[in-house]
């Protein structure tokens, strides 16, 4: 090759390199722009509901993104491989109930105030290979005539766990040991339990595999924590119960995913379906969920087997929520909830009542009058935002007993007094509504109303129509 040719190529080489660099930079910029920002970058913290340990504020390393007054508190970079996150919550809930538990426990009205105060620290070390999360909580209740086990526990360790994370090219394996909140799927069987006051928590170990292609698998072995309403820092593990299981997620397609799960709940002594003794209950199920165009759906199909004292457990349940979101500024979603769960039948020497384990009963309102057991429930829901920072969500549900031989179940698998021998299948109609206002990113206000127009199954037990009005205000950072 001649020197003239070399000079000609050497003249064009810087131009080619510059063009290549420009194309690469443009592609990288487009890739960054196509990656949607974390929801926390838009508004923080998360709205009340999810566990605080899911929050990731590493994007606050960028000073330009520190736009919230509390950002200096919620995230501190300690070194190149370590950071600290903090947060807090103060919530008050005021209830006014008319005929609580349908008036079947001798109380005509009940008005009370609940407080929940939380603070947490979240320390990440060695580029998140090691993590420690600690959350303290104070829960109090004043003026309640019909207390429940999840009302108050004074000062308590709500969560305290250590994570060990192994990062692979295909995903991340996490081992979590300690006291922790858990929720799976649509929270039909395992939930954080946001109502009425103390959130559900477990002591134990959990292994989680999260693959980059969307596959997930959890394995856990725990004991539920017992809330004691007197004293502080004295809530123990429930040594009468073991709760363990597997939960996996399969991304079948771009519009359909499936969860497969198996849970075991072993209780040393229990009374249910006319039997008293050891209850070894195993729940197998699948959840089909996804979105297509403006449609969304989540359907759980569940089967329970095992042994209750000398009887075989044979129970089932279905829980579904399907909806369509309309175009427009109100973001209106019209939904349909269809839930059903088996009840016990007399004379077959089987325990047929479905136990929803640790469910999200808030599906049915704030009154703690309904759970997924011996029930058929159908009704429409609507959610829309007529104004900025305001959401309204009404719903109407018609409900029946699945089995007339079984009682009407309340949260906690207790029956409404007198309903195990009452006649009639109709439970009634539930009219509920929630109004949510978020004036700032740190403050949310909820107003809930529920009216339970009872049917023959409750009326024949001496019950009355029940209603409740709930006001909740929450500050968190």
Automatic annotation (TrEMBL):
Family annotation (Pfam families): Alginate_exp
Keywords on record: Signal
Signal peptide per UniProt: 1-29
Domain Alginate export: 83-467
Gene3D superfamilies: 2.40.160.100
Coiled-coil segments: none
UniProt key word Signal: yes
InterPro entries xref list: Alginate_export_dom, Alginate_Permeability_Chnl
Superkingdom to which the source organism belongs: Bacteria
Record-given protein name: Alginate export family protein
Organism: Pseudomonas umsongensis
Top-level taxonomy: Bacteria, Pseudomonadati, Pseudomonadota, Gammaproteobacteria, Pseudomonadales
